[in-house]
Design brief:
It is a single chain. The protein is of the alpha/beta class. It is built from ten helices and ten strands. The chain folds into two domains: about 140 residues, Rossmann fold, CATH 3.40.50; about 150 residues, 2-Layer Sandwich (Alpha-Beta Plaits), CATH 3.30.70.270. The protein is about 50% helix and about 20% strand. A five-stranded parallel sheet has the order 2-1-3-4-5, sandwiched between helices.
């Protein structure tokens, strides 16, 4: 049991009665209290909860104003709010529900009804949380290369387009590095594809370690990898690319791959450039630089303006 509840009511006696009722059913691990909507909102910001019980009529900030404050915070909009009201006016209840309340209970409340309604909304909250986590996992899986854990090509293309447009709007710069493992076919032919996968994983890890937290590392396909470096000049990108090259050159393998040493060739392009205006042209520029690195002997970094 790890759920928590926030009880907002200007009556100490009402809050105490609610807590005693809920404690008897072991529904919550933590109870938070507040005397009005403002204090409740502040507590909510510092201690997120799973459900809120809020009085409708309170001094300073009443239940309606509290609901409007919740609306201003997208991260709090999924928290169910059960309104407590001593008035049995239909219009007020409808107004509360329209402003975001999940349910209401008329005071003086029946303990069993209170617990039943809390259980229902707590269950709905758990289902929503599970669905949210599942959707986040699905999104992550759809954006991730299953072998290396880096972003996949589809995500890369979307991210590149966004970064390119951002550069155009802000007159900024960005750089792109394309990396290819030298003679990788020989690794697969000699050691097999399973060991080749180990090499790809090690290369991906080494590359990512040399990048900043907001850089984008992706597997472009086969033995090719791409790094997107926002706000990086060509000089900075060349430095990073060479650091990646040296890091990969220093990889030590074990087992059947112990004798193996690998190198990579890298091509760098920087936007803006007179030779590119689109994502495809930007990638081609970096790819041309990669081709030049291979033609000039491999295990090197090349740049084309």
């Amino acid at each position: 049991m790890s759920d928590s509840v926030l009880i907002i009511d200007d009556s100490d006696a009402v809050r105490e009665r609610i807590i005693r009722t809920l404690e008897s059913f072991d529904l919550f691990a933590r109870f938070y209290e507040a005397e009005d909507g403002l204090e409740g909102f502040k507590k909510l910001l510092s201690s997120p909860v799973d459900i809120i019980l809020c009085d409708l009529e309170m001094p300073r900030i009443d239940g309606f104003k509290f609901l409007s404050m919740l609306k201003s915070r997208p991260d709090l909009q999924d928290v169910p709010v059960i309104m407590l009201t001593g008035m049995n006016e239909r219009e007020l209840k409808i107004k509360g529900l329209e402003q975001g309340a999940s349910d209401y209970i008329t005071k003086p409340f029946d303990p069993e009804e209170l617990v039943a309604r809390v259980k229902v909304h707590l269950k709905i909250k758990h289902l929503q949380d599970d669905l949210k986590r599942s959707n986040e996992l699905l999104l992550e899986l759809s954006n991730t290369d299953h072998l290396t854990g880096l972003f996949n090509r589809r995500y890369l293309m979307e991210a590149l387009e966004k970064e390119l447009q951002r550069c155009i709007r802000k007159n900024g710069c960005m750089s792109l590095i394309i990396l290819d493992i030298d003679h990788f076919k020989g690794v697969n032919d000699t050691h097999g594809h399973l060991q080749g996968d180990v090499v790809l994983q090690k290369v991906a890890l080494s590359m990512q370690k040399e990048l900043r937290s907001y850089d984008i590392a992706a597997r472009y396909g086969g033995e090719e990898f791409v790094a997107v470096l926002p706000d990086s000049t060509h000089k900075e990108a060349m430095f990073v690319a060479d650091r990646v090259r040296l890091s990969i050159q220093g990889i030590k393998f074990s087992g059947a791959l112990a004798p193996l040493s690998i190198t990579v060739s890298l091509g760098v392009a920087t936007f803006p450039s007179p030779n590119c205006a689109t994502v495809d042209e930007f990638i081609k520029l970096a790819d041309d630089a990669l081709y030049l690195a291979k033609a000039n002997g491999r295990n090197r970094v090349e740049f084309i303006e």
